[in-house]
Amino acid sequence: MKIVDVIYRYEAQEPPARPLPGNSDAARSRLDGGNRVFAALLERVQDESGHIEHVIPVEPHDLGIAANTTVTPKHRPFAAVVGCADARAPVELVFNEGPNNLFVIRVAGNGPGTDALGSLKYAVEHLDSLKLIVVLGHSGCGALTAAVDVFLNPGEYLALATKPSLRTMLDRMLLVVQTCANKLLATFGPQLAQTKGYRRALIEASIVTNAALSAYSIQEELGIGENASLQVVYGVYLLETHAVWSPRRGSKTGGGLAMAPKDLAGFVELGNALVESERIASLVRS
Ligand SMILES: [Zn+2]
After folding, report:
1. How far does residue 15's CA lie from ligand 1's centre (Å)?
2. What whole-number percentage of the chain has pLDDT above 90?
3. In angstroms, what is the span from residue 87 Cα to ligand 1's centroid?
């Protein structure tokens, strides 16, 4: 296996090596592109031997180390990311970004709880640089796995009866799991519930739907409209391939981030894209 150095390189340049994105579409393309770079880098690790040096250019101003200045860096992230607390999904690395680029909130299950929403509200109201809000789930999420296991074995809920903080998180996810179970069983037939692949397929379908629902909730609670200069998107970081995935109509691979659903029809469309995706189909067959 290769040796890989991921290097944050601070180099004073005018204009900066990586100017900040000017709008939501550019911010989304930058994150999608950054993730493709990260995923490709780790794919090369598996395939080849030798040494890779991967450089992420960073502006000295962003760490307050520019020459001839003692000024505190201006807070200027271009995207806010609500990610899971899971240590295997490091947000800046996943998107090939450095300090002062992302406003990151991490909480188990990447849900729109009060503190997460309050933090986002602060960012939206105070940071002019912000162009995009991202909800990032990840495959194999322990929070959604726990919700699926409670759904499949309701007796396990008793262990949570005296733990309100955990119960609150789980209750919201159970609705997502129930909806995904209905969709999977309606598509693949009720016999699916007896198969080995059902639990994994249900976990992974729930992870995508949960991220989409979080993105929708954030969009609605922050009052971000269709033509707003700020967009809300979501995706799932796949631990297996290191790529971000969001199954959707019109995209064969579902690579990259997707716009948050706008209404019920958007969720129905997502449900259809999910069950038609190769990833969920292969889990069902496994
Ligand atoms: Zn997680």
Report:
1. 38
2. 73
3. 9
Q: Is 286 helix (H, G, I), strand (E, B) or coil?
A: coil
CA distance 260 to 123: 19
Q: Are 134 and 192 in contact (CB under 8 A)?
A: no
Residues 89-112: tens digit of each pLDDT: 999 999 999 999 999 999 999 999
- Its pTM stands at 0.94
* Helix 197-221, helix 142-152: angle, nearest 10: 120
Place of tokens 């990259």: 256
Distance 216 CA to ligand 1 centre (A): 19
Residues whose Cβ atom is located within 5 A of ion ligand 1: 84, 86, 141
Question: Which pLDDT tens digit goes with each residue over 8-40?
Answer: 988 877 777 788 999 999 999 999 999 999 999
Ligand 1 centroid to 154 CA: how many Å?
21
Alpha-carbon distance 274 to 272, whole Å? Answer: 5
**Burial bucket for residue 159 (CB in 10 Å: 0-12, 13-18, 19+):** exposed
Residue 127, amino acid: L
